[in-house]
């Protein structure tokens, strides 16, 4: 478990929450997104429960406005953390006992049974892989680990070309075959290693959302790091508002604020999770075609849609595709995406046609 990363995320979260609780506004810092109530200081008009805590090597935050009778911070926290722990038990490569870790250790090239939940996430990974012609690839694990962005400690030296090629030979989304009934997966090589980190935060937000709705919660905002799912309105009876930040590693500056109700939004970027070696920055998003961290002018990609798992994966996929192929795919597929490109002193942001349409609709009364 990357405790340094978790401690840093919690430290940022606590500092900002503390400073902003003095007024009614709040800011939720995330890896690449932070959200805020737009209305400034003033009286809250409806009851609000707010909880936060560590999860998945990062943190979560949940706000419930107008909670149903009997719900309080303690019961909410228990419910939310139980849902997130379920997702960890299914999808974590950091937990050796998870279903995914057991699948990764299984050297069989026969059909391996899967739980319906793990099957659904792998299927979504395969769908995005096909959509992006393999730029997004959930078999990327050996390369993620080689570059030190997985559960193992980062080696002192950069990987050699031979190590990269050896890891690349174990990567390829077409080496995985899925069966629906009964749910199962078949690996073309026994040493494939699936990494669902690009989808897992979204899965967590969707799982928490389903639980809250089953409990009669109509107004909530769930953030699992940079992936957010919101429904209804905030305590001031306004749409939940999310700030997309400038893709700058050393500061947190709002680039653009977007209202989000009954939607999910996720941002991926190359400016929070990276390391620097000999003056060069290496990001955690890996290009399967080179076997190396992406080198892009694209600082961040934000995606809006119905399901958090889908927008979480697409945001990573757009980062890997980069500033030319990403926007082209968003336009051709009608995906609501916002890109921030560093091609001058000031980062330049632009939305796909579907992104601007989505926002125009959400501004309507
Ligand atoms: P995103 O952009 O959403 O995802 C980037 C990640 O996707 C990369 O870090 C890599 O893992 C993967 N990736 C890279 N390139 C590609 C590609 N081309 N195609 C597809 N995927 C790619 N971290 C810890 O330090 N400790 C933990 O205990 C821990 N537990 C976790 C449990 C779960 C269930 C999950 C899902 C993740 C966990 N993590 C943990 C990982 C950590 O939270 C990740 O940093 C995070 O999931 C990546 O999300 P992001 O928003 O930073 O980036």
What tags apply to this protein structure?
alpha+beta, disordered N terminus, 19 strands, 4-stranded antiparallel sheet, 365 residues, binds flavin-adenine dinucleotide, 8-stranded antiparallel sheet, 9 helices
Short description:
The protein has helices at residues 3-21, 73-91, 99-105, 116-131, 141-146, 161-168, 197-214, 308-333, 353-363, and strands at 27-28, 33-36, 48-55, 58-65, 112-113, 176-179, 184-187, 220-224, 227-231, 240-245, 254-260, 263-269, 274-277, 280-283, 286-287, 292-293, 298-305, 336-341, 348-351.
Characterise the protein shown here:
The protein is 36% helix and 25% strand. With 365 residues, it is of the alpha+beta class. The chain has a domain of 99 residues: ApbE-like superfamily (T-fold, Orthogonal Bundle), CATH 1.10.3980. Strands 3-4-8-9-12-17-18-19 form an eight-stranded antiparallel beta sheet. A four-stranded antiparallel beta sheet has the order 1-2-10-11. Strands 5-7-6 form a three-stranded antiparallel beta sheet, with helices on one face. α2 runs antiparallel to α7 and α7 crosses α8. The longest helix has 26 residues. The chain binds flavin-adenine dinucleotide. Flavin-adenine dinucleotide binds next to α2, α7 and α8. It catalyses: L-threonyl-[protein] + FAD = FMN-L-threonyl-[protein] + AMP + H(+). It is a lipid-anchor. Pfam families: ApbE (PF02424). Its cofactor is Mg(2+); Mn(2+).
């Amino acid at each position: 478990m990357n405790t340094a990363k978790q401690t840093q995320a919690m430290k940022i979260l606590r500092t900002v929450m503390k400073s902003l609780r003095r007024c009614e506004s709040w800011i939720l810092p995330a890896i690449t997104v932070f959200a805020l109530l737009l209305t400034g200081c003033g009286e809250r008009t409806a009851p609000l429960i707010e909880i936060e805590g560590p999860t998945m090597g990062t943190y979560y935050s949940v706000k419930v406005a107008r909670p149903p009778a009997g719900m309080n911070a303690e019961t909410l926290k228990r419910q939310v953390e139980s849902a997130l722990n379920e997702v960890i038990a299914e999808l974590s490569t950091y937990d050796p006992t998870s279903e995914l870790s057991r699948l990764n250790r299984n050297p069989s090239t026969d059909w391996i049974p899967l739980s319906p939940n793990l099957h659904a996430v792998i299927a979504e990974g395969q769908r995005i892989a096909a959509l992006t012609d393999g730029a997004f690839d959930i078999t990327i694990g050996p390369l993620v680990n080689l570059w030190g962005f997985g559960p193992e400690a980062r080696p002192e030296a950069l990987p050699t070309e031979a190590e990269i090629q050896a890891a690349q030979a174990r990567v390829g989304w077409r080496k995985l075959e899925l069966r629906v009934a009964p749910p199962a997966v078949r690996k073309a090589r026994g040493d494939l290693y699936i990494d669902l980190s690009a989808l897992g935060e979204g899965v967590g937000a969707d799982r928490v959302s389903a639980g809250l709705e089953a409990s009669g919660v109509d107004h909530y905002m769930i953030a699992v790091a940079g992936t957010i799912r919101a429904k209804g309105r905030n305590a001031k009876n306004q749409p939940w508002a999310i700030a997309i930040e400038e893709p700058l590693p050393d500061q947190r500056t709002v680039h653009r604020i977007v209202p989000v109700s009954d939607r999910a939004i996720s941002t991926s970027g190359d400016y929070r999770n990276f390391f620097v070696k000999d003056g060069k920055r290496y990001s955690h998003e890996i290009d399967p075609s080179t076997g190396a961290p992406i080198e892009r002018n694209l600082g961040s990609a934000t995606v809006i849609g119905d399901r958090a798992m889908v927008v979480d994966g697409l945001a990573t996929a757009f980062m890997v595709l980069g500033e030319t192929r990403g926007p082209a795919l968003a336009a051709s597929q009608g995906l609501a995406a916002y890109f921030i490109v560093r091609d001058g002193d000031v980062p330049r942001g632009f939305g796909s046609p579907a992104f601007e349409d989505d926002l125009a609709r959400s501004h309507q009364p």
